[in-house]
Amino acid sequence: MTTALEFDQIRLPPECDELRHEVRAFLADEVARGTFDPHRPGHGDSHSKEFSQRIGAKGWIGMTWPKKYGGRERTFLERYVVTEEFRVANAPVRLHFVADRQSGPILMKYAPEHVKMDVLPRICAGEVCFAIGMSEPNSGSDLFAAKTKATKTQGGWLINGTKIWTSNAHIADYMIALFRTSPPTKENRRHGLTQFLVDMKTPGITVNPVFQLTGMHDFNEVVFQDAFMPDDHVLGEIDGAWKQATSELAYERSGPERFLETFYVLVELVRALGDKPDVRSAEGLGRLVAQLHTLRRMSVSVNGMLQAGKEPVVEGSIVKDMGTVWEQRLPNRVRELAAFIEEREGNRATLEEQLRFATMIAPKLTIQGGTTEVLRGIIARGMGLR
Ligand SMILES: Cc1cc2nc3c(=O)[nH]c(=O)nc-3n(C[C@H](O)[C@H](O)[C@H](O)COP(=O)(O)OP(=O)(O)OC[C@H]3O[C@@H](n4cnc5c(N)ncnc54)[C@H](O)[C@@H]3O)c2cc1C
User: Fold this and answer.
1) Distance from Cα 367 to the centre of ligand 1, integer Å
2) Is 0.70 topped by the overall pTM?
3) Which pLDDT value is given to residue 17?
């Protein structure tokens, strides 16, 4: 039997407009003071503690969280607007973004109260960076094959093994990681994994860089050798992390960052085409904008459902699948539409530079955060098709 998909018809409420203007004014001010260059490719993937702290002071990190943890108790739709504006502006939010999007919500659900009171306000202040330690050599899509082992010892656990592709690990203060605390059982191969809060300063942790096609250093190999984790850094149920993992996915996969990572090439195309594009370019541009509009409506819908306390895992996976395929194709589509732009001094330089960069990052878009094939498996299962 198949299950109906549910994309609630949600629109951003009027209070979001005021917030959007406030964020735009803040960003314009930051550009003017030289914090970042919105036209420089890759800038959105860099980090600045001072900038994150200024964003924290505005109340735009952890903004949906309870006030007692430093949050502002605002809505998911308001958070959506802030995320969208920062991404579109190509602003360097890497330091706090993972913590804001998913590590904080995990801690809120599963960490002991004293850990929440210690860490969450520092996330909201833009002071700490988080990494996600799931993938291992030979265990990416199949998370439940993870082998990095946590062995019980007095007062805590000793960790041994290797995580890979760990974004941010070289700048992170903490990682939320999955470790094996027991072998899988015959009845349940998902059994035996536990989620931990890892303090990256712990002795016995080595971070080795892995460079991307662009030459940038975003992710890493992280090696654990008898690294000690105290008992109060266990998150949730021992051996039962598989039950915790799925609800995280709707947060990770549905936001506007999942289709706006190469957006700057579209903006630059509009600029380079000028106000009198030929019919072919206007039609191509219109098509791209219509597709983007649809993706955005779907993504807003998922965030509205999160606000309503639902867990739209299938809908979030659809947004990530369609969104990342779209943003991956965008550089080539823009290259085709730009082919006949007349060469006048300066009018194509930024576009060419951005296209080169966007083309090099495009392959990763459908891998990070779950591959297209794996997402489609989740969607099929969620709809009762397999
Ligand atoms: C830029 C970037 C940042 C990343 N950051 C992080 C991070 O911070 N933390 C972290 O833990 N990981 C991170 N990853 C790792 C990412 O989550 C994995 O690369 C991804 O889950 C795929 O795992 P894999 O590389 O082991 O490939 P595999 O799982 O080996 O997959 C190889 C191919 O087989 C296909 N495949 C696998 N299983 C199935 C299936 N059941 N059905 C159909 N097809 C299947 C896949 O779609 C893929 O095409 C990052 C990856 C990238 C590219």
Assistant:
1) 5
2) yes
3) 96
Regarding the beta carbon of 371 and ligand 1, being less than 6 Å apart is answered: yes
- DSSP3 helix / strand / coil % (the chain, rounded to 5): 50, 15, 35
Residue 214 CB burial class (10 angstroms; 0-12, 13-18, ≥19): middle
pLDDT at 343: 65
DSSP string, 23-76: HHHHHHHHHHTTS--TTSTTGGG---HHHHHHHHHTT-SSTTS-GGGT-----H
Question: 344 CA distance to ligand 1 centroid (A)?
Answer: 42
How many helices (H) and strands (E) the chain has is answered by: 12, 8
Tokens for 138, please give them. 């030979």
To test ligand 1's pocket by mutation, which of 101, 106, 130, 135 has the most ligand atoms within 8 angstroms of CB? Answer: 135
Which pair of structure tokens corresponds to residue 239?
């051996």
Residue given tokens 């370019």 in the structure block: 281
The per-residue pLDDT for range 89-101, each reduced to its tens digit, is 999 999 999 999 9
Q: Is residue 254 in contact with ligand 1, taking CB distance under 6 Å?
A: no
Contacts of 363 (CB under 8 A, 6+ apart): 213, 328
Query: Is pLDDT above 70 for 133?
Result: yes
From the CA of 324, how far away is ligand 1's center (Å)? 14
Question: pLDDT of 137-153, one tens digit each?
Answer: 988 888 889 999 999 99
Return the percentage of the chain with pLDDT > 70, whole number.
96
Whether 373 is in the pocket of ligand 1, judged by its Cβ within 6 Å, is yes
